[in-house]
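Let us practice reading a record.
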Amino acid sequence: MKILRFEDIVAWQKSKDLTLLVYKIFKDNRDFSFKDQIQRASVSIMNNIAEGFERNSDKELKNFFYIAKGSCGEVRSMIILAKELKYIREEEFKQLYELSIETSRMLSGFIKKLT
């Protein structure tokens, strides 16, 4: 099946879900620099998938997927820190962590197909 729009990429859909969850969970967090950074990193995942797709080049798509995967790692690192700082509950940590792992795995799969 040929993907015609970036919105049809499951990794983009998962990263959007991750971003919405990050915004919801950290909405009332008073550590504004932390909140800003994790929100920007999560948005970066979905935006890099979209931008790479719109470039219409497998080489550029692969490069943007690598960037998205890096941002996914950044989000996961911050999720771990948020748990240690007690900014989030265990249940929220598990939700965010699993979604970030799932997104990262999907990106890895796409990258392998493009290699």
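A brief commentary: The radius of gyration is 14 Å.
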